[in-house]
Amino acid sequence: MNNYDQQDASRLIPLLNSIMQEISDRIQAIALTEANLREMDKDEKAGRPGQALAAALMNHRRELRQCRKEINRLGCVFDEDQPYRILIPGNDGQLSGGYAWQTGEASIETRTPDTSNR
Length: 118
Known about the structure:
- This protein is 54% helix and 10% strand.
- By secondary structure, it is of the alpha+beta class.
- It has one domain.
- The longest helix is centred in the N-terminal third of the chain and has 27 residues.
- The mean pLDDT is 92.
């Protein structure tokens, strides 16, 4: 279980920023590669150009999965409501009393535990 105090969570920002940039780059590359594959005719897809694009697509998807795994290895998760926000566990290892970081931000925000009865 990973846990972070505010200073340690703040130290994650450069790494999280780098990972999120990699994710953004991979998503763009996947979209472009898929578009290029769609534009190819059947013979091109079966030939070397199509095979090269298919291999590149698989590589981009694998690297995207690796980025997401790296976020998880840190004990962090993507916020379901805000996909460009990462939740960081607090001192107790829980997300509810931890921190949140928004892509592009220079600092983290402290989250307060949700004590409402749902």
